[in-house]
C-alpha cells in the first residue's frame, strides 16, 4: 500500500514538474499584440 | 465601506520618487510589467484618512510629457486615457528641492491635463546644506496647487502628504498655461475642430510620435489628421511651449525660492573631482570592486557552510524518518539537494545586491557611468550602455530591457547582443562552487585567491562584452546618430529601507524565479537518474553481485557499485554517454555533460543538477562541495574537478549562451529570431573553443 501511494506521489510530482517546464519554456500564454517591436509602429526602433 | 482612489506617482529621474513610493506603501507593493510591453510596473496600497485607500502606481521617471523612450510613453499613455482602470484620480509629482525649476516643467504639463495635481518637494533636509529657502504659501498660490514639503530620508512630511492625497478633491485643476498663448490662430482652430476635447490633450496627441496602445485609436487618428502645420512648424511650437512654461516657472520661483550660495556647504564638487578623475576615478572604482568581491567571500562563508550542512542533514533525516519508497527517495535525493543547490547562494547574492544598491543609492553609480563613458565610446557603445552592462551583473533580462533608453538603434542592438557576456547572478553559483573546488584558499596582499579569481571572471565577462561590441561596431552597417546625457544626482547616505527592499526583492526573485525551475528540473532529473530501460538497469543488483562475487567487498561497497551501475544505465546515464564524446576534449565526464545540457534553461540549474545526480544512490551525509570534490575522472583517474577542467568549465560558463529567457527577450526586443540565433551559436561556439583550448593547455 505504502509503495503504491509513494509511486502515485512520485508520478504526480513528475507530471506537475513536466507541465510547469512546458508552460514555462515552450507553451506560453499568448500576450497582447500591442508589443514593442510589433507592427503597430510604436516607433521604438 | 472604504473608497479606493488611483494615485499616479510621477517625477523626473533621481527625485527620490521610489523613496516616496516606499514611504507610502511600505511592503504593500508588487512589481509587474505593463501589459504587452516589458516596462516595469510598480504598484502598492496605502491607507489614508477617512477610510480612503490609495492604489499607488510608481510610474517610470520622465523629464517631460514629450516622450522619447518607451518608459516615458507609459506615463503619457496613462495620463491621456481616461478609460484606463489605472487612470489617476490624483497625480503626485515628485520633485527634488535642488532641481525644482527643471522638475516643475513636468508638473505644469500634467496640471494642464486638468488632472488634480499635487506637488511633492522631496529632500527638504538638503535645503540648509544648499542655502535654499522656500515660501510654500506663495508657491501654492502661484502654481495653484498644494505642496507637500517632505524628506523621505528623515521621514518628515509623509503624514501631511497622505492628508493632502486624501483631500485631492480640493486641488485646483486650472491649467498653468493657456495653449492659445503659444499660437492663438492654430490653437483656436484646433479647439473649433474638436470642441469637446481638452486642448492640451489634443496638442500632446498631435506632437507625440508614440504608441498609444490603450487610448482610443480612432479618436487619436481623427486628431492626428488635423495637421495644419509641417513637422518643423510643430517642433517650433513645442519650443515656444517650453519657453512659455519656463517663463511661468521662473515667475513662480522668483519670489517663492531663494538660494543663498554663501550658506551652501557643498561637498559634491570636491567629491566629483576625485571620483570622476581620469586616473584616481578608475583607481577608486577598482578598489571598490576589490572590496566588494572580497567581502562577498569573507562574509558569506559562515552562512553558506551552515546552509550546505543543513540541507545535507535534512536529506539524511528525511531518508531515515519517512517510510522507504520512491517518493522518499525523490525528496531525499532529488528535491532537497536540488533546492539546497540554490538556497546556498542566497548569502552571496544578497551581499552582491547590497553593495550594488548602496552604490546606486549613494549616487556613485552615475559617476561610474560618466567615468566609463570615456572608455565605452572607443568601442562603439553609448555611455548609456554602461547601465545595462552593470545591471547585467544581476540578470541579463532586465539589463536588455534597460537598453530601451538608448536612442541610437545601432548602439542599442550592440548593447543587447553583448550584455549576456557580463557575469549575471545565475553564473555566480557555478563560479563559486568551481572556484571553491579548484582555487586554494590562500591570500595575496590580504586578498583571497578565490575572491581575486571571481573578480577576474567579472572582468573577463566585461572585457569580452566590450571587445565584441568593438567588432560588432565594425561589422554592422547601420547608420545612426549618437549622444549621451546623464544626470549626476547628489551624493547621499543610502537609505536603509530602500537598500533593504532592493536586496529583499532581488534575492526573492532570484530564489523564487530560479527556484521553481530548479525544483521542476530536479524532479525530472531524479526520475531520469532513478529509472532506466532494459535489462542492465533492471538487473543491476544481480549483475553487480555476480561481477564482484569473487571479491570480499562490504555491503556498503556493493551498494555503491550497484548505485553507480544503475546511474550509468539510467535514462540520464544513456543520454550523458551519448554526448560525452563531444565534451570529453573539454575535460568533462557525462555527468557534467548532463548538467550543461539541463542548465541551458537557466545557468544556475548546473549546481542543482550535479547535486541531484551525485545524490542519487548516495547514503552518506555529504555536502554538495564534498561530493563534487570526491568525483574521480573515469578515464585519467584523479579528481574530476581539477585545475584544468575547472578553468575550462569556468570559461565555458563565462561565454556560453546558457539562458533561454535571455534568448526570448532578445527576440522580443529585436523583433527577429536572427539576432538571438546568432547570439546562441556564436557565444556557445566561442565558449566551446575557449574551454577546449584552456583544458588542452592546462591538463
Automatic annotation (TrEMBL), chain A:
> Which superkingdom does the taxonomy of this entry point to?
Bacteria
Q: Which residues cross the membrane?
A: 6-26
UniProt KW Transmembrane helix keyword: yes
List UniProt keywords, sorted A-Z. Membrane, Transmembrane, Transmembrane helix
Name this protein carries in UniProt: Attachment p12 family protein
| Source organism of this protein record | Mariniflexile fucanivorans
From TrEMBL, chain B:
Q: Name one GO molecular function term.
A: GTP binding
Keywords annotated in UniProt? Cell membrane, GTP-binding, Ion transport, Iron, Iron transport, Magnesium, Membrane, Metal-binding, Nucleotide-binding, Transmembrane, Transmembrane helix, Transport
Q: Does the keyword Phosphoprotein apply?
A: no
Describe its membrane topology.
Answer: Multi-pass membrane protein
Annotated GTP binding sites: 11-18, 36-40, 58-61, 122-125
Give TM regions: 279-297, 335-359, 413-439, 451-472, 510-529, 643-666, 678-698
Physiological role: Probable transporter of a GTP-driven Fe(2+) uptake system.
Q: Which PANTHER family does the protein's record reference?
A: FE(2+) TRANSPORTER FEOB (PTHR43185:SF1), FERROUS IRON TRANSPORT PROTEIN B (PTHR43185)
Q: What is this protein called?
A: Ferrous iron transport protein B
Amino acid at each position: 500500500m505504502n509503495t503504491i501511494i509513494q509511486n502515485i506521489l512520485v508520478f504526480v510530482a513528475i507530471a506537475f514538474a513536466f507541465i510547469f517546464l512546458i508552460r514555462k519554456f515552450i507553451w506560453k500564454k499568448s500576450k497582447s499584440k500591442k508589443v514593442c517591436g510589433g507592427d503597430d509602429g510604436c516607433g521604438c526602433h | 465601506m472604504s473608497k479606493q482612489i488611483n494615485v499616479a506617482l510621477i517625477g523626473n529621474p533621481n527625485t527620490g520618487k521610489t523613496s516616496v513610493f516606499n514611504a507610502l506603501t511600505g511592503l504593500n507593493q508588487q512589481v509587474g510589467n505593463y501589459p504587452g510591453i516589458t516596462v516595469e510596473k510598480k504598484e502598492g496600497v496605502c491607507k489614508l484618512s477617512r477610510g480612503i485607500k490609495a492604489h499607488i502606481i510608481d510610474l517610470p521617471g520622465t523629464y517631460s510629457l514629450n516622450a522619447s523612450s518607451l518608459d516615458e510613453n507609459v506615463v503619457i499613455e496613462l495620463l491621456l486615457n481616461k478609460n484606463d482602470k489605472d487612470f489617476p484620480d490624483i497625480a503626485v509629482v515628485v520633485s527634488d528641492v535642488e532641481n525644482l525649476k527643471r522638475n516643475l516643467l513636468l508638473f505644469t504639463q500634467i496640471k494642464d491635463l486638468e488632472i488634480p495635481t499635487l506637488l511633492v518637494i522631496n529632500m527638504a533636509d538638503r535645503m540648509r546644506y544648499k542655502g535654499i529657502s522656500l515660501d510654500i504659501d506663495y508657491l501654492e498660490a502661484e502654481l495653484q496647487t498644494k505642496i507637500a514639503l517632505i524628506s523621505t530620508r528623515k521621514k518628515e512630511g509623509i503624514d501631511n502628504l497622505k492628508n493632502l492625497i486624501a483631500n485631492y478633491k480640493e486641488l485646483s485643476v486650472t491649467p498653468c498655461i493657456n495653449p492659445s498663448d503659444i499660437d492663438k490662430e492654430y490653437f483656436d482652430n484646433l479647439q473649433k475642430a474638436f470642441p469637446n476635447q481638452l486642448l492640451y490633450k489634443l496638442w500632446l496627441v498631435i506632437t507625440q510620435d508614440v504608441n498609444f496602445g490603450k487610448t482610443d485609436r480612432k479618436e487619436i487618428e481623427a486628431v492626428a489628421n488635423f495637421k495644419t502645420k509641417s513637422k518643423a512648424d510643430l517642433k517650433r511650437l513645442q519650443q515656444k511651449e517650453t519657453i512659455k512654461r519656463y517663463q511661468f516657472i521662473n515667475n513662480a520661483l522668483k519670489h517663492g525660492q531663494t538660494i543663498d550660495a554663501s550658506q551652501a556647504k557643498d561637498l559634491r564638487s570636491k567629491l566629483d573631482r576625485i571620483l570622476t578623475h581620469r586616473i584616481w576615478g578608475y583607481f577608486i572604482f577598482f578598489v571598490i570592486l576589490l572590496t566588494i568581491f572580497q567581502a562577498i567571500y569573507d562574509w558569506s562563508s559562515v552562512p553558506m557552510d551552515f546552509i550546505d550542512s543543513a540541507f545535507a542533514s535534512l536529506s539524511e533525516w528525511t531518508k531515515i524518518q519517512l517510510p522507504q519508497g520512491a517518493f522518499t527517495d525523490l525528496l531525499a535525493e532529488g528535491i532537497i539537494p536540488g533546492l539546497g543547490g540554490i538556497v546556498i547562494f542566497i548569502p552571496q547574492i544578497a551581499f552582491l545586491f547590497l553593495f550594488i544598491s548602496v552604490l546606486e543609492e549613494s549616487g556613485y553609480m552615475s559617476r561610474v557611468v560618466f567615468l566609463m563613458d570615456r572608455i565605452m565610446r572607443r568601442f562603439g557603445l553609448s555611455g548609456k550602455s554602461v547601465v545595462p552592462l552593470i545591471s547585467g551583473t544581476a540578470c541579463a533580462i532586465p539589463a536588455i530591457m534597460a537598453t530601451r533608453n538608448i536612442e541610437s538603434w545601432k548602439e542599442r542592438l550592440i548593447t543587447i547582443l553583448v550584455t549576456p557576456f557580463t557575469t549575471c547572478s545565475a553564473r555566480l553559483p557555478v563560479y563559486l562552487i568551481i572556484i571553491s573546488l579548484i582555487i586554494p584558499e590562500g591570500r595575496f596582499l590580504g586578498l583571497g585567491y578565490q575572491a581575486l579569481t571571481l573578480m577576474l571572471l567579472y572582468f573577463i565577462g566585461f572585457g569580452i562584452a566590450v571587445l565584441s561590441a568593438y567588432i560588432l561596431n565594425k561589422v554592422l552597417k547601420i547608420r545612426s546618430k549618437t549622444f549621451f546625457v546623464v544626470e549626476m544626482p547628489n551624493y547621499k547616505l543610502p537609505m536603509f529601507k530602500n537598500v533593504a527592499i532592493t536586496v529583499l526583492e532581488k534575492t526573492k526573485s532570484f530564489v523564487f524565479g530560479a527556484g521553481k525551475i530548479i525544483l521542476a528540473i530536479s524532479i525530472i532529473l531524479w526520475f531520469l537518474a532513478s529509472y532506466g530501460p532494459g535489462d542492465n538497469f533492471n538487473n543491476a543488483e544481480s549483475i553487480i553481485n555476480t561481477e564482484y562475487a569473487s571479491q570480499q567487498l562490504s555491503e556498503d561497497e556493493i551498494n555503491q557499485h550497484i548505485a553507480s551501475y544503475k546511474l550509468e544505465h539510467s535514462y540520464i546515464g544513456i543520454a550523458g554517454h551519448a554526448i560525452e564524446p563531444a565534451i570529453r576534449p573539454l575535460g568533462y565526464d557525462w555527468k557534467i555533460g548532463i548538467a550543461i545540457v539541463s542548465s541551458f534553461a537557466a545557468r544556475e540549474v548546473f549546481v542543482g543538477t550535479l547535486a541531484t545526480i551525485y545524490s542519487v544512490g548516495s547514503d552518506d551525509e555529504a555536502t554538495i562541495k564534498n561530493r563534487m570534490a570526491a568525483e574521480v575522472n573515469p578515464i585519467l583517474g584523479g579528481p574530476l574537478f581539477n585545475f584544468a577542467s575547472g578553468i575550462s568549465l569556468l570559461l565555458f560558463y563565462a561565454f556560453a549562451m546558457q539562458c533561454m529567457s535571455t534568448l526570448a527577450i532578445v527576440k522580443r526586443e529585436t523583433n527577429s529570431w536572427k539576432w538571438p540565433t546568432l547570439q546562441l551559436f556564436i557565444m556557445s561556439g566561442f565558449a566551446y573553443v575557449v574551454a577546449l583550448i584552456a583544458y588542452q593547455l592546462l591538463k
